[in-house]
Design a protein that fits this description.
about 400 residues; alpha/beta; Rossmann fold; formyl-coa transferase, domain 3; 6-stranded parallel sheet; 17 helices
Length: about 400
């Protein structure tokens, strides 16, 4: 075991690929867990090939390691192991015996055919926490279908409330259903480990992209359940708070997020339209929600009178929430983002200059902060050391497995 993080001493057998599973295990790895990434020899995680862009070498040539793969695979060591073969399955069992958690995102029943399903392992490894991540879960009429983030966003409702009111439904710009499912899975794993520490009992965790997507409909989902109304797309607007949207400024875009009547009055005074604060159509948030179209028609030309910086800095002094709409390049140049250290650089054996840039873990902890111990590994980079260190395999034995294609 390495590191001194909060999860130091926890070892994870990681049979995941793409984004939901890898984002879960990367988060646990950042918090100190030892993560063994199991990959198919010669192929590895599908996302290794999801580019461009790819990491470039000293000659400016792409290395075949994609930026997409890098985003969710730090703090792991890669073992290339063919579990479709009996010898590979036997090695997997020997390794699982040394692990606390198994995370997988095969289709329902996919690992059972290799004798590595939960029911195959639970009696031999009663303390094992076993987490399955699928598109639709282990039960229900769609359980057997393959699931992807885009499908979950569509079926789970978020696309119906994303986009302009008169436009097409839109997915969120990143695979948020995958990422949120990975986060829910990480929380469930931590809870299961806490239970195991008290009882000695492992358990099975069934996570689904669709379930996670439905869960984070949050206020809009409950708005529907309470009112019976189907929420509609509002663009950048908020269903329950007005004014709350992105406005065109004199030189770009600015987000205004007025959360109460006091803030609205302050905005009116600063904007030079104090009469709006006493107009009975706009004097309370409830009234503003009912009359949002009329209010926004009045506000939009006012917001164009000043630059984004003038709005942001002027309203900040008054305690009115306001901020710029940054592109992603501006995000990483933002002074606040830089001050919080949200970009990190980690060593990489193939990259020009010897490092690759990554996004930091956002968790801040005083005693056991996230650690960045291992860069995203090359396929099979740690096969020999893991087999040697965890199950005591010898050099000749490992060489034989490699020659037979069981280990890569």
């Amino acid at each position: 075991m390495d590191g001194r993080g909060a999860l130091s001493g926890i070892r994870i057998f990681d049979l995941t690929r793409i984004l939901a599973g890898p984002s879960c295990t990367q988060l646990l790895g950042d918090l100190g867990a030892e993560v063994i990434k199991i990959e198919r020899p010669g192929q590895g995680d599908d996302t290794r090939r999801w580019g461009p862009p790819y990491v470039k070498d000293e000659n400016g040539e792409p290395t075949g390691e994609s930026a997409y793969y890098l985003c969710a695979n730090r703090n792991k060591r890669s073992l290339a192991l063919d579990i479709s073969r009996p010898e590979g399955r036997a090695l997997a069992r020997r390794l699982i015996a040394r692990c606390d958690v198994l995370v997988e995102n095969f289709k329902v029943g996919g690992l059972a055919k290799y004798g590595l399903g939960y029911e195959d392992l639970r009696h031999d490894f009663p303390r094992l926490v076993y987490c399955s991540i699928t598109g639709f879960g282990q039960t229900g009429p769609l359980a057997g279908r393959a699931g992807y983030d885009f499908l979950a966003q569509g079926q789970g409702g978020i696309m119906s409330i994303t986009g302009e009111p008169d436009g097409a439904p839109l997915k969120v710009g990143v695979g948020i259903a995958d990422v949120m499912c990975g986060m829910y899975a990480a929380v469930a794993i931590l809870a299961a480990l806490r239970h195991r520490d008290r009882s000695g009992e492992g358990q099975y965790i069934d996570m689904a992209l669709l379930d996670s997507q439905v869960a984070w409909l949050v206020n809009e989902g409950v708005n529907h359940l309470v009112s019976g109304r189907v929420p509609r797309r509002l663009g950048n607007e908020h269903p329950n708070i007005v004014p709350y949207k992105a406005f065109a400024s004199a030189d770009g875009w600015v987000v205004l997020a007025v959360g109460n009547d006091r803030q609205f009055r302050r905005w009116c005074d600063f904007a030079g339209v104090p009469e709006l604060a006493v107009d009975r159509r706009f004097a309370s948030n409830s009234a503003r929600v009912e009359n949002r179209r009329a209010l926004y028609a009045l506000m939009e030309p006012v917001m164009r009178r000043r630059t984004t910086t003038e709005w942001v800095e002027g309203l900040a002094d008054l305690g009115v929430p306001c901020g710029p709409v940054n592109d992603i390049g501006q995000v990483f140049a933002d002074p606040q983002v830089r001050a919080r250290g949200m970009r990190i650089d980690m060593p990489h054996p193939l990259a020009a200059g010897g490092t690759v840039p990554l996004i930091a873990n956002p968790i801040r902890m005083t005693a056991t902060p996230p650690e960045y111990r291992h860069p995203p590994p090359l396929l099979g980079q740690h096969s020999e050391e893991l087999l040697r260190d965890l199950i005591g395999a010898g050099t000749e034995e490992i060489a034989a497995w490699k020659a037979a294609g069981i280990v890569g």
